[in-house]
Amino acid sequence: MSDTQTAPIKVGLFVTCLADMFRPEVAFATVKLLEQAGCDVEVPAAQTCCGQPAFNSGDNHNSRRIARQTIEAFEGYQYVVGPSGSCIGMLHHYPELFDDRDPWKQRAEHLKARAFEITSFLVDELGFNAIESRFTGTITYHDSCSGLRELGIKQQPRQLLAEVAGADLREMQEAETCCGFGGTFCVKYADISNRMVSNKTGFAADSDADTLVGGDLGCLLNMAGKLKREGRDIQVRHVVELLADMTDTPAIGEADYDLGQPL
Amino acid sequence: MDIKSPEFKQSARIALQDANLQKALGNLKAGFPGKRASAVARMPEFDALRDQARDLKNHILEHLDLYLEAFEARVVENGGQVHWCRTSEDARQTILQICREQNAKTVTKGKSMVTEEINLNEYLEEHGVQPVETDLGEYILQLRGDHPSHIIAPAIHLNLEDVSEAFHEHHHRPKSDDPAVLMAEAREMLRKQFAAADVGITGANFLVAETGSTLIATNEGNGDLTQILPKTHIVVSSIEKVVPTLEDMSLFLRLLARSATGQEFTVYNTLSSGNRRPDDQDGPENFHVVLVDNGRSDMVGTEFQEMLRCIRCSACMNHCPVYGAVGGHSYGWVYPGPMGSVLTPQMIGIEKAALLPNASTFCGKCEEVCPVRIPLPKLMRHWREKEFEKHLSPKAVRWGLGGWAFFATRPGLYRWASAGASRFMRLLGGRKGKIRKLPLAGGWTDHRDMPTPTGKTFMQQWNERQQQEKQR
Asked: I want to staple B362 with a disulfide (CB 3.0 to 4.6 A). Which of A1, A189, B199, B377 is the partner?
């Protein structure tokens, strides 16, 4: 904890591909929160993707190669923390990729024990809730499936959001129902995915919230893209942006200046 | 039943456009999940029972041979016969043979998914025996020449108007849209059939090794009339339905009804323990149990063994957002939803069924509600492994994955490629923050915009900051 005299907690940031590429603010917000909680954050350069696209396509050979690379990249860090229940959930699957007799199995177990999604790390592992943030508006929270069902993330983000001054949480119907992203599912089964995300944006709109918040960029890009296409006036943001008081940037899929007239 | 699983995507597209089906699916989604949730909420020990049930099923599967043989011995002691059938064909022939020995013209049937699996109705008809479905849903489907789209609510894809239409056409009565009238009509038609049938065929929810009993859990009582009135009762059951004792069975019954319909208990739970004894007032003279394997014993000892814990409650499909969007027929064979996506590849081959285990976002809702804690997403993923190993995945997927993995295992190159992709998308999107049409990503941009990257990649920005700090 920041107010104790102990050595800082050494955390390796698992950036996640989508934060890296689509929304670096999410990774910066994660770093900010970790530092506020007294962590010393580093970003191992040898990380890439968690390997989930290969794993969920049944390609265990490439999943293992990526798992080994990730395990090595994060050796030496007390914790591995990332802004995604899905990617961190994948790190938790690594032990399944190795035989009991394979020495990598134990290393994978060791990584799993240290790997946390950001909100659950702050709440469950550090007991941190000294959020210094202000956000004026009504928000609704989408529970991303992997975080919710693989890592038990439900109350943690809500507990932290309750500390954000001005933010009023209004739960939507079926907050726990999948948004239809599912990685490659959304392009392989585009019609079904479209139905699922339409249901979701409908529920979000019914909640009368002006901002939809969640913990996984895959889901957020999916829902933001749909909301934009439907022309609905709901902003979408990753939960860490609100928690780290980093909401002065455009929301996901928003223009970075006032366009006035549509182009 | 024809296998239409390879056409899953086309069927799903049609299903999504079918307003009647969507209306019917709306009823399902508005009904089952809420009822299950309140039944579970009324039972604090529900999760503890699920653990017990999982462990007990695991124990049974480790000793499946022992319990099945014990069951057989008790059935024989009770005066019945057990027929071991490795394949669907064996099972069909065995059943037809029994019907022929009885000179059976008509056969009444209680609801049974395994008889769908072995395609029994069509086979009996081809061989001059008329099957009559007596479960209301199944009866409606039979009139329509249709098949179940759900394992416990077979006609869930239909609306009241469809039933009214079918009854009007086949019963030659004035058309009614009053459910009570329709029900009375079906009852009247079926009474005659119950009395006239030479053989009654039911499924089984459980086979009890301790007593040699079979059990059916129904809400209509049709199963009772099916098995008590005819001279011959044939129970068709798959092998994994066996449980050691009556006590064990009651554990599963408590979970089954709550998981399925949210009832505390199914209305009729009927045990059959052999044929009529001299002092009995009713019951069949002949009692047969047809045990169907059809690929199940091949699952024992494999990564798919856990699927054999399934007690066919339907909670997985009732809660599945994919099933809820496209309905059961889209899956193209007997068992729909998540449980079907694991079972079907085993029975019809992964070559034909590969689209099913892929049709999941792995949201995990099915596993969350499964009363015997089957890790359905994991098992679907195992089928994807088989598909990948057998080179059945589409070329675009394999090449795409291979190319992606080339980069993902080379961090420096990966940095460079993601920076390039980010820049490309930013150029396309301009300052609008989104792209309406992205090359090679039609699956995405047909239905939604693609938010564009907000700037250089995190890794680029982080490294720039680190260097600036060093220079200070």
From this structure: B377
